[in-house]
Amino acid sequence: MYKDEMIKVCEQLKNKKEVIILGIESSCDETSIAIVKNGREVLSNVISSQIEIHTRFGGVVPEVASRNHIEAINNVLNEALEQAKLKITDVDAIAVTYGAGLIGALMVGVSFAKSLAFALNKPLIAVNHIKGHISANYIEHKDLIPPFICLIVSGGHTAIVEVESYVKLNLIGTTQDDAIGEAFDKVARVIGLGYPGGPKIDAYAKQGKNNIKFAKDSLKNTFNSSFSGLKTAVINYVHTLNQKGKELPIEDICCSFQTEAVDGLVEKSLRACRKFGYKKICLAGGVSANSYLREKMTQRGKQEGIEVYAPSLKLCTDNAGMIASLGYFNLINNVGISDVDLDAVSNIDI
Ligand code: KG4
Ligand code: ZN
Hints:
By secondary structure, this protein is of the alpha/beta class. It contains 12 helices and 11 strands. It has a 6-stranded mixed beta sheet, sandwiched between helices. It has a 5-stranded mixed beta sheet with strand order 8-7-6-9-10, sandwiched between helices. The longest helix is centred in the last third of the chain and has 27 residues, at 250-276. The model has no long low-confidence stretch (mean pLDDT 96). The site of zinc ion has 6 residues, from helix 5.
């Protein structure tokens, strides 16, 4: 009943000049709520990070993350409305990340979104978090429209996709084992840099040299990738030096690992552009904040005559702005319009 009524409301919204979407994101350790107009204009994007809490444990503790989402979410909503200078009744629809992510953390955002949508009698739009990362590019680059190739690199995913439309992706290549962000975080932990590892490796790599050969890319001629061999090679290298009582060349390890992890993905993405006939590539996901990846892709894109897009740093990592943005594109394309029995899902395909 609710959903049938909401499908009609969404039809009417398609004729509205300004559609205001409230987006909710709670898939990992950021509680975020954003208000976005017509999928591109951010009126507010409030992010309450739990990084300090999880740093003590060396990584995200799922149970702790869920509890902190519950504590933060109401204040984050009030702050988002205040910054946008809007009342909750001004919002046209509620978009929420329903997966992929930590199940308990997702459930907080999904339950909150369902209650809001039902109480306000507004549409509830389910958003796939991984696809949401791509939408950060629509906010950043106002005239960017699909189709294009996208390299998605996050803590949970690594994929090269063809973005056929705002709502349709075709998977070209993916990781056979670990996600790239997972490998960054693991390597950082092994060399004692702590959590979150990605930004720390990025910073140390700037002072180091690419002078340690860790592993060869066995999937070089495919669009797939693998990071577990590289990760294990770093771990073995570190153990050997530790056993010999030698000091770890932290900066060189970071630089050599980062170069190996990034270079192959850049070349595979550009090869995908050539093969499928695209002149545009976007970066998406937390690891797209990596300064070496951004530089390398920009430089190689220039050489190949391919335009490279990336979100600003704040939009690379988890935020609700990207969820509200994709929520809008989902709504106008009849995707994800949900009933109040919407469930959180920990694993979903791209
Ligand atoms: O997209 P995201 O915020 O969350 C997921 O959806 O997984 O990505 C988080 C990942 C973490 O592994 C983090 O270490 C990594 O992104 N990351 C980076 C950088 N900033 C965040 N990795 C490398 N260099 C960075 N500057
Ligand atoms: Zn993410």
